[in-house]
Write a structure and sequence with these properties.
It is built from 13 helices and 15 strands. The protein is an alpha+beta fold. The strands form four sheets. Strands 10-11-12-13-14-15 form a six-stranded mixed sheet, with no helix packed on it. A five-stranded mixed sheet has the order 6-7-5-4-8. Strand 14 and strand 15 form a beta hairpin. Helix 4 runs antiparallel to helix 5 and helix 9 packs antiparallel against helix 10.
Length: 523
């Protein structure tokens, strides 16, 4: 009976959403880089371009080094945050998908859902990140800076040519040339088919491809580990020809069959993994491990319950046209932004009108296809994803520090309760530390005038100093390569007459760390 079975829980696609936001950072970076090109071209106006075009050209080309310096700083700032975010998304959200999926499978098989951490999966996720960031680093740090310099040079040279030949006045020459290159974007990559990819589009493709691969493998790995080869194929209002018949069905990576009264479709019969096949390029369907006889399919919402494969295919064609309109709106908004940077009112009016016309076309198109909904986020050229990501990175760092501090505090409380913290019998304050002689078997603390604890001196049963534990590197980190913050121990040897024999320096032992945990717990 259905009520004795367990429903499959469809993990959300947080991983894909977060990965898309990382790609948005690279897109924002290219927009800001182009803004720097425009600012540099327009700096000090166009008067000298009209009076002495070639002098203007020489001046602009001499500023190439300044532009490159600005670009390098911007790229480093953006790519650092983007890489940090991508690593977090893949390694953490990817492993969460794996963990949640395996727990659900174990519960369906009668277990409690608990399992031992899979280090191999975590290693594979880290490898995906390293490979992806390596590909993007080569694009962002090598190809992109060259492309920015080339665009700047071409804008300058083309603007001069238009003025010299009398085709345009200086302002219009700059505006039209800048807009031409704004439409083309920065070069990133040329594929085997000769297609020229923009740098941001290529970075988005790399991230999207890796993210989907991680997402699917994180779902499939638990099934492979438990010997399960059957999956629930997700349902969407729009589906390609090879996916449409599989929607809301049970599929297998093996042979088609019937199991527990459930018809199971073979993925291989539907072009599994091929460009136009199921789970191929740009296929957004997900597969959730499914155990016939132990799970049941999820209930479908009303708008999907009676959807036929033919209708899904037709909807997919309609949806692709909506995506095309969204892209055109985004591009027009980007060009409007460039026109505003240029201060060219004719161009501003042109692209404002173009945006309004395209938005009207979107409204009309959605009226013709009620199953589609308008996603305004897809029509934005960017919503400052960099600042959002920067805040998220900072928040995670603060949360990590808070967790580490709580763990250390717990260790301190444990040490205090056990009586392991050393008992201090006296304190000296200021520049003068405890001397070589003191009360036998005592410990004297040395504090700075601001209250910071600098060290502790231990005396043996004769009353002579046996060791100093210093909690700082004395502002000489290169000479005190010990511990976490330079903390170290000086061992002393005195004869019975108090004559100094020797002094050696070493790391703190575990026992010494534990008995001084009241100071070291924050380290």
């Amino acid at each position: 009976m259905k009520d004795k079975k367990k429903p499959i829980k469809l993990n959300d696609q947080q991983l894909m959403l977060d990965a898309s936001r990382v790609a948005d950072i690279y897109h924002q970076m290219t927009i800001d880089l182009f803004d720097q090109v425009v600012d540099r071209v327009r700096e000090r106006g166009s008067a000298s371009l009209e009076d002495n075009p070639y002098i203007w050209q020489l001046e602009k080309m001499s500023e190439m080094g300044l532009l490159n310096k600005d670009n390098t700083k911007l790229i480093a700032r953006y790519s650092g945050i983007a890489e940090e975010q991508l690593r977090y998304v893949i390694e953490n959200e990817g492993y969460k998908v794996y963990k949640d999926t395996k727990s659900q499978l174990l519960e369906a098989l009668g277990g409690n859902g608990n399992f031992i951490t899979n280090n191999l999966i975590q290693t594979n996720l880290a490898n995906y990140v390293n490979q992806t960031t390596g590909d993007i680093d080569n694009l962002i740090n090598t190809t992109l800076p060259k492309s920015v310099r080339k665009v700047y040079q071409d804008i300058v040279e083309e603007a001069v040519a238009k003025v010299v030949t009398g085709l345009m006045n200086p302002d219009k020459a700059i505006s039209t040339t800048v807009m031409k290159w704004a439409e083309r974007g920065f070069y990133g990559f040329t594929d085997k088919g000769g297609k020229r990819w923009r740098a941001d589009a290529y970075a988005r493709t790399i991230i999207k491809t890796t993210s989907w691969r991680v997402y699917r493998e994180a779902r499939k790995a638990p099934a492979d580990e438990l010997g399960i080869d059957t999956f629930y194929y997700s349902m969407k209002p729009a589906a390609r020809e090879m996916c449409a018949p599989l929607q809301h069905q049970i599929v297998t990576t093996g042979q088609a069959r019937v199991e527990e009264g459930e018809k199971i479709f073979s993925l291989d019969d539907y072009g599994y993994g091929k460009p136009g096949g199921c789970q191929g390029i740009n296929c957004g369907h997900t597969m959730m491990p499914f155990i016939p006889g132990a799970n049941y399919k999820p209930d479908l919402p009303e708008h999907l319950a009676n959807l036929t494969p033919e209708e899904a295919i037709e909807n997919a064609n309609a949806q692709s046209k909506q995506r095309a309109i969204e892209r055109s709106i985004r591009q027009s908004k980007e060009l409007l932004h460039v026109a505003e940077k240029l201060g060219d009112q004719d161009l501003i009016d042109k692209y404002k009108s173009k945006v309004r016309i395209q938005q009207g076309a979107m409204r009309d198109y959605l009226k013709q296809h009620p199953f589609l909904h308008r996603d305004y986020a897809r029509e934005k050229y960017y919503a400052d994803p960099f600042s959002k990501a920067k805040k998220e990175v900072k928040l995670r760092e603060e949360q990590k520090k808070a967790r580490e501090l709580a763990t250390k505090r717990a260790e301190l409380d444990k040490a205090v309760k056990s009586g392991k913290i050393v008992s201090v019998s006296g304190v000296t304050v200021g520049h003068t530390p405890p001397g070589k002689a003191g009360e036998p078997n005592s410990v004297v603390q040395h504090n700075a005038t601001n209250g910071d604890v600098l060290g502790r001196t231990y005396y043996d049963d004769r009353g002579y100093k046996v060791k100093d534990i210093h909690f700082t590197n004395h502002k000489q980190p290169d000479k005190h390569l010990y511990g976490k913050k330079g903390e170290h121990v000086h061992d002393f040897v005195f004869d019975d007459d108090g004559k100094f024999i020797s002094r050696t320096t070493r790391e703190l032992t575990n026992n010494e760390r534990e008995e001084n945990l009241d100071i070291l717990w924050r380290y």
